[in-house]
């Protein structure tokens, strides 16, 4: 894509101004501005969900205004200043994730471990995907007395951990997997589908007339829900062919940060006694690339005396494996949606404090799958907190210039996923704990 500098009007072809000596904008400035813009988009997405729950902070709005202003071509050409804004974006995202966490807990109760039925139950049903739990709650309210069952999909799976949602009689289970499989899974689901966030793809003809979107979410061929009125979706469910009674399995969700910290004392003692070798955070945003099997293979090869924390739709790369149990707990602990990275940071901070060390000295490895804006915001949060040694993949964001990448690697030891998880794990065990 050809871009033009507002000052010198020279074509830049997406890599920054071609006359850097005239207006001062080079590919590193362009790279950092794009990094900031994508981070801002992620913050805005989380802030949108939090605001619907009544959670807001004017500091967020003030930063978004400043950050967007700084990306104008005639405002800031200083890479160091832009990098500082990127780190501030990470701090603001931490605030927004905390607001969203508090909003979810105040509205829907404290999440707790729960078993979820996967599959379908005979009768009419609606499939809900995306991220917006408030839309799900309103849909459930409007479904009362209709006989229509509601199923979660994708990042709505953690809804089953919240008591106020889980106890609703119309919420009966979970269907399907991550967003990139929706064209297959939505076609096979005979009822209407409600998409509540940006995970939606342009629908296939086979289910286009059954796809509804809510709020700011929209897609060509889809049908908009306005004003929180889901009556048309419910009517579509009652008019659609009934779903079959099909049981797939039961799985466990709900290891929110409070649920894990309830075991903090025992976990700390187990670490001190050498009974827990390491914690792995494996998750993030999933995608269709075959290279993402790296995360599946990596999780399968983690030591049996370790724990795996997961969150985001990246969990679908590893949740179909049987990771077993350790010390009476599942080795795979599902912490929730991608915004629940806030909870993972809470757990890491509490363990570091209890063990008398910094987060970078914990036996903790972060293996993060990257795809879109919210993943950028979470990455900036981790970096802004000084977290080092993050393994990121399966490929780098295209907007990171070589120089910007070099700076991130030098300052934060940012690493790339390799081709062989076993080799990466072997190097991990040879590296010092602070790596």
How does the SSE layout of this entry go?
Blueprint: H1 20-23, H2 27-52, H3 58-70, H4 79-108, E1 114-120, E2 125-129, H5 133-143, E3 149-152, H6 163-166, E4 171-174, H7 182-188, E5 193-195, E6 211-214, E7 223-225, H8 231-239, E8 246-253, H9 257-261, H10 264-272, E9 279-284, H11 293-300, E10 307-310, E11 325-326, E12 329-330, E13 332-334, H12 341-355, E14 364-369, H13 373-384, E15 391-393, H14 402-412, E16 415-416, H15 421-430
Parallel strand pairs: 2-3, 2-5, 3-4, 5-6, 6-7, 9-10, 9-14, 10-13, 14-15, 15-16
Antiparallel strand pairs: 1-8, 11-12
Helix pairs in contact: 2-3, 2-4, 2-13, 3-4, 4-13, 10-12
Function: Catalyzes the reduction of hydroxylamine to form NH(3) and H(2)O.
Enzyme class: oxidoreductase
EC number: 1.7.99.1
What does this protein structure show overall?
It is a single chain. Helix 2 (27-52) packs parallel to helix 4 (79-108), helix 3 (58-70) runs antiparallel to helix 4 and helix 4 (79-108) crosses helix 13. This protein folds into 3 domains: 20-108, Substrate Binding Domain Of Dnak, Chain:A, Domain 2 (Up-down Bundle); 114-249, Rossmann fold (3-Layer(aba) Sandwich), CATH 3.40.50; 254-430, Rossmann fold, CATH 3.40.50.2030. With 435 residues, the chain is of the alpha/beta class. The two termini are 39 Å apart. The strands form 4 sheets. A 6-stranded parallel sheet has the order 4-3-2-5-6-7. The chain has a 6-stranded parallel sheet with strand order 13-10-9-14-15-16, with no helix packed on it. It contains 15 helices and 16 strands. Keywords: 4Fe-4S, Cytoplasm, Iron, Iron-sulfur, Metal-binding, Oxidoreductase. Catalyzes the reduction of hydroxylamine to form NH(3) and H(2)O. Its main location: cytoplasm. Hybrid [4Fe-2O-2S] cluster binds at residues 131, 155, 199, 285, 313, 338, 372, 374. The modification Cysteine persulfide is found at residue 285.
